[in-house]
Amino acid sequence: MPRRRWHTPSPYGPRGNGPGRSLPSLLMRSTLSRSTAALKPSVRPSMPAILAAIALFPSASVFAQDATPDESSTTTPASASANGPAPASAPAAAPAAAQAASGQTLAPVVVTASRTAQSVTEALPHTTVVTQEDIVNSQAPDLRSLLRNQAGVEFSTNGGMGTNTSLFMRGANSNQVLIMIDGVRISGVSNGNAQIANILPDQIDHIEVVRGNVSALYGSDAVGGVVQIFTKSGAGQAPAANAQVEYGSNNTRQGTVGYGGQIGATSFNVTGSMYKTDGFSAINAAQWNADNPKSAARGIGPNPANNPYENKSISGQIKHQFTQDWDAGVATYYSNSQLSYDNAYGKPTDDYRMDSKLYTLSAFVNGKVLSDWTTHFKVAQSEDRSEGTINGLFDSLFSTRTRQFNWQNEYALTPDHTLMFGTDWLQQELASSSYNAPSRNVFSVYGGYEGRIGKHQIQLNGRNDHYSDFGDQGSFFAGYGYYLTSAVKLLANVSNAFRAPTFNELYYPYYGQPNLQPERAKSAEVGVQVETASTGLLRVTAFETRYNDLIVSALQPSGLYLAQNVNKAKVQGIEASWRASLWGTDVGASVTFQNPLDETNNTQLLRRARRHASFDVGRNFGNWRFGGEWLVSSARLDSGSRTLGGYGIVNLNARYNIDKQWFVAARVENLFDKNYQLAYPYNTQGRAGFITLGWRQK
């Protein structure tokens, strides 16, 4: 099999599963892809610079506040568990009494950081929330646009909307970040990646982003972190309909309709949307042909035509409160997309298409067995399916079906000390046109403790996952917080995590090795969190993650490249996130410094910037709202010793409320028409404008 010089995302197709004729280069390299270029001096921000950055935000007065934190800050709804869609309404739940008394913006309630409900300020792993208000104000067209301003998060893409998208968190590869919708895993078992490019914001209520190793909570893939998407539930809202239409550059058309709310003890929501765009050419054909004149002379190269994309999505959820202590419900999400994509190794007239489907379906029950014992049941199924064609003829099929069952319990020893224990069962099956594979069964048990003793906060978690294909894998998390004052908290975490081999790595012909072991990682971090009414919420974290047994393609004497556990890597970094409302203006910032290093070859991991940051601002002026964001990144290395240049792009948005029901909104992406790349040789969106007309029943 020829060795390709490409990395995730590759020119083989939008999903990285390949066109069916050969294994994509994604699988022929280390999971943490590397460059062959000599390593440049590592970036190590000086301590004075870090302290100066921190000093810009909190005022000295925070250290003069009462040194004893308000114990009520841990009080959250018992039903807001990671096992049910109840958290979709969690940000509206009552948080700390001290915050309310001070007039401070109420902190969202999160469940992903510990699998139990807690204020985001109580979370010991670095956790942030993309709220419904953030989603509406940003007018983001896709999940990547929603998450690109998060600390520690980077993306690379194979072109425009719908193309293969890789999410890197704290330098970890895309298949080392766990993606869930309403607590349901959605990644394909063939390559370990999720269809994040096909998840559009219309069905999303909010998103929780947890950074660092949390396999002790969720098992495989939670190495770089977890992104959990919560669909709209209608809980706590008066029943109302909504609709909006959008038109913009690249002949983009979008429409959304929804209806949801709460009637008595029953909450419900259903939302459907359609998105179409003519797009732009994914691969920069002129750049490719200039770099590959011999191939171009033989008539081999990408199709220079635009690549259209279409997406249809729907989500639904219903929950009924049977008694004060028991509720049950059903949640579902479905997405169907058609994409035209480019392949650099075909003919310039070839037409490559990918039809992708993604769905989740879950049923859940939450209740109290005893006054101190809360239990949650969930049964769920998801499917990730991609079928490719070339010039209208079938080319490839990769379809993952995942079934899971979760049973989680929390037992309150006292108001300040809680035990958490449960079991997960997971089954994954693959249907593929390239090879056959046995199903994978995973049985897991886990437990944890959360407690507060005066100024001290503790979180301990342990988990064991038994895989039918490679046996047992244990993981742990130990977190500690210390309140210097009610506003300032010091944090420290140590943990380990793992990623189970994908089916491509185990079974793909002439590449897979059935005896592979999981990739493993160990992480340690320290940080400080500052929260006041005047300065908002700031968190600065320094971390180090070491990777062992990374799966790479190793050259054999026979000339084949086979999957083997041989590589090591290390990522050191400092990340900061800040959100505040200053003098009526909403502001936010995230900054990341990191040094992603392949220790086996002393080379830099591909497509990871050593420095990236974002800054956003928004303000209401009567019926108007204006906002914008600035995204900056340093240079990144890519395949073939190429360097992707650094960039800075500016996006603007505005909204006008015509009356209580109607509004008009507009946004401009890449205001200064910056020419940049997130992966060679793929184009990115140039300057583009969009306008939206919306209505919500009042």
TrEMBL record:
Regarding the membrane, this protein is recorded as: Multi-pass membrane protein
* Presence of keyword Repeat: no
Which intervals carry biased composition (Low complexity)?
A: 70-95
Protein localization: Cell outer membrane
Q: Which family is this sequence assigned to?
A: Belongs to the TonB-dependent receptor family.
What UniProt keywords apply to this chain's record, in alphabetical order? Cell outer membrane, Ion transport, Membrane, Receptor, Signal, TonB box, Transmembrane, Transmembrane beta strand, Transport
The record's annotation in SUPFAM superfamilies points to: Porins
Q: Which InterPro entries match?
A: Beta-barrel_TonB (IPR000531), Beta-barrel_TonB_sf (IPR036942), Plug_dom (IPR012910), Plug_dom_sf (IPR037066), TonB-dep_rcpt-like (IPR039426)
List cellular component terms (GO): cell outer membrane
Domain of life, per lineage: Bacteria
Q: Which residues form the TonB-dependent receptor-like beta-barrel domain?
A: 247-671
Q: Which PANTHER family match?
A: COLICIN I RECEPTOR-RELATED, TONB-DEPENDENT OUTER MEMBRANE RECEPTOR
- Disordered, as annotated region: 1-25, 67-95, 293-312
Keyword hit for Nucleotide-binding: no
Pfam families cross-referenced by the UniProt entry: Plug, TonB_dep_Rec_b-barrel
Under what name is this protein listed?
Outer membrane cobalamin receptor, TonB dependent(BtuB)
Q: Name one GO biological process term.
A: cobalamin transport
- The residues covered by the TonB-dependent receptor plug domain are 126-226
